[in-house]
Amino acid sequence: MKDNVKSGALTEVTFFILLALYEPKHGYAIMQFIDEKTGGRLVLGAGSLYGALNTLTDKGWIEPYGESGGRTKEYVITDAGREIAEKELLRLRELTATAATIMGK
Known about the structure:
Elements: H1 12-20, E1 25-26, H2 27-37, H3 46-59, E2 62-65, E3 74-77, H4 79-103
């Protein structure tokens, strides 16, 4: 994952994972959420997703949720992750406003 925290720019996949985890979800539910919300434009494989989940956990942006008695492990966004997602939303709004002004839209 090549997120640029200094500028606030996240990869689209990272942003959607954070959005997915505003409610606790396990890996497959995260993949379904992203597929649904992007109309199939973004499709994550299990390996890519679980690598991203490990990275986001290491960054403190998400954390395991509840008891994972079986193989299914749920995750949820942390306060730090919410802050990052909110900054990304603001960045995207500024980007689109600038683009709309330039393009006359």
